[in-house]
Sequence to fold (298 residues):
Amino acid sequence: MCASARADLIEHGIRYSIASPPLLKQTATLVRETRSRLGFHFGAVSDSGLTVLVAPDDSTFRALLGPRFPDWGVGAADPDGLAIYLKAPGADGWIHSYEQVAVHEYAHIYLHLRAGRSPEVPRWLDEGFAMHAAFEWGMESHLRLARAAWTGQLLDLATLEDVNSFRGEKAALAYTQAFAAYQYLEEQHGRQGVVDLLSGMAAGLGFGQAFLRATGSPFPEFQAELRLHLKEQTNVLSLFTDSALWWGLLALVIVAGWWIKKRRAREIERRWKIEDRLHGEADFNEYVDPNDDESWRT
Fold:
């Protein structure tokens, strides 16, 4: 972006470089509200020194991130360099919610700061936390997860470390499983379990040791339980997959499961907002819907 077209703002130590003044204001508000919301629930962090840059078009965005950045990416966070790169809504090929993408990328920065910039933050936790923060879950995600469970195509969480090299459906499934894994972690151990895990890593513990201390279970055991949990969620449905006659009923059951999950997510968000108001926090917007090097998070 040329300097004459750029609007800059420094707020609370964060530098925003965005061409459109309305978009600059929107982005700064999203970052401010997300910082407050995540800080209230998981602990405060200092993000002073962060740079948020929004490219006006796809070519500028790609030039900033280099050829190794995946072609399906629309945002990037560099926790090591304390930077967020976004593409302006309306730019070439933009089909996503700008609000969700901005929150998602800031959540990456927050998570790494909260974990003391530990190099051991696993990618599934990184992406799952960011998707959860941005309320990214839809019926398509539910169907994708169910289909992978039925067909035995669930990914090992360790393989998500290479998610930037994934393409198409495999990349989509990786993000979906990351969300499901993070959600299961919170369901089983509560928000405090996540806080304890991040605090352990911030204190210098490796991920495995921090996970064991926070949850009482070794991570391999958690992953085995997660896989069984995901399979059990769709085990009864799998009885109907041999006959096309049952696909209509199957679709209805899947939609019902998605609706229940979506309602639960909305209830969680509603409780968060109530808690925030009780503690004097501002209301937060509702976001509904889903490298040059390995430090990039998309």
Summary: The CA atoms of residues 123 and 160 lie 6 Å apart. Confidence is low (pLDDT under 50) at residues 1-5, 237-246, 281-295. Strands lie at 7-11, 14-18, 51-55, 75-78, 83-87. Residues 1-114 form a domain with the Glutaredoxin fold (CATH 3.40.30.160).
